């Protein structure tokens, strides 16, 4: 599983201040930290950046690339001018992996401008399944949006291999059925768009539950999505357990999650408390158990 580090983000008080004050030190420290933690990409999230994004994003990218040259970057802002200005100055990553534009929505006013741009500069992009009416209602609406955007991209000369499909993760405590829908959609991608990659904003699933429950939700859903074919997630570099699972170092966790998905976990009383918690979390995500903030205590 490829990991896209999420914490070089304007919503961080420290990083947001560094962006505003053009202070390179915290930005470079965070980029080096993410590299040390095993991230495969570094996401640079400016948010809307309406006022000065066209100047700020290139500066941040150049600041990061002064200290990290061998990791590709994900350019994350809704400001199209900022993306375009950055693509003019960004240096290729030394490991040869393409940079990533995060993201292009399935809205004509967005993709008709952005797709030719990424085609011109030869970078990959995340195809975000957010359409004219917002979040798709189910996997079939996701599929229809996916076909629309990928067809347009293919016509512009972009092969599926340079497209990363994001079906959108929703919070478990308010939109649990959408988590199942995303898994069903994920299974469809290989047949619908051969060669396309996939990713998601993983931590959205735990946006709302108490902080101490966020890691196990993120970790469990990542394994479930990977089993459905997902190849990458945008993740928290501070979550060492998630990174270990993603890099194949906790096969016991993967195995018990798979068994639980299949209804084959059996009597879990002999399992460690850690593995029992993963069983309970799978059941919550699949809707077998009603969500509550105390599901691990039951």
UniProtKB/TrEMBL annotation:
GO process terms (BP): methylation; pteridine-containing compound metabolic process
Every Pterin-binding domain range: 1-270
Alphabetical list of InterPro entries matching this protein: Dihydropteroate_synth-like_sf, Met_Synthase/Corrinoid, Pterin-binding_dom
Family matches, as PROSITE patterns: PTERIN_BINDING
GO molecular function annotations of the record: methionine synthase activity
Keyword Transferase in record: yes
Entry's Gene Ontology cellular component terms: cytosol
Top-level taxon of origin: Bacteria
Listed Pfam families: Pterin_bind (PF00809)
Record's keyword annotation contains Protein transport: no
UniProt KW keywords: Methyltransferase, Transferase
Family recorded in the similarity comment: Belongs to the vitamin-B12 dependent methionine synthase family.
Entry protein name: Pterin-binding domain-containing protein
Origin species: Desulfonema magnum
């Amino acid at each position: 599983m490829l990991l896209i580090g999420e914490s070089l983000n304007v919503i961080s008080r420290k990083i947001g201040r560094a962006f505003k004050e053009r202070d390179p030190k915290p930005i470079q420290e965070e980029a080096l930290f993410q590299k040390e933690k095993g991230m495969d990409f570094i996401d640079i999230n400016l948010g809307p950046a309406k006022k000065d994004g066209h100047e700020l994003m290139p500066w941040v990218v150049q600041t990061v690339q002064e200290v990290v040259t061998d990791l590709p970057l994900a350019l994350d802002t809704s400001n199209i001018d900022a993306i375009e200005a950055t693509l003019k100055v960004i240096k290729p990553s030394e490991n040869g992996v393409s940079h990533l534009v995060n993201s292009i929505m399935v809205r004509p006013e967005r993709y008709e401008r952005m797709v030719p741009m990424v085609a011109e500069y030869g970078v990959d992009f995340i195809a975000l399944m957010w359409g004219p009416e917002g979040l798709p209602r189910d996997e079939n609406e996701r599929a229809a949006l996916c076909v629309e955007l990928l067809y347009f991209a293919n016509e512009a000369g972009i092969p599926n291999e340079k497209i990363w499909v994001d079906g959108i993760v929703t919070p478990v405590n308010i939109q649990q059925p959408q988590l199942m829908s995303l898994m069903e959609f994920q299974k469809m991608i290989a047949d619908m768009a051969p060669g396309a990659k996939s990713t998601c904003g993983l931590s959205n699933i735990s946006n709302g539950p108490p902080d101490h429950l966020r890691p196990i939700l993120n970790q469990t859903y990542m394994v479930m999505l990977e089993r459905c074919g997902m190849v990458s997630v945008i993740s928290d570099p501070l979550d060492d357990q998630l990174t270990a699972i993603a890099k194949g170092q906790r096969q016991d966790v993967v195995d018990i999650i798979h068994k639980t998905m299949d209804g084959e976990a059996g009597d879990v009383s002999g399992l460690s408390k850690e593995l029992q918690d993963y069983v309970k979390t799978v059941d919550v995500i699949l809707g077998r158990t009603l969500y509550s903030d105390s599901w691990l205590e039951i």
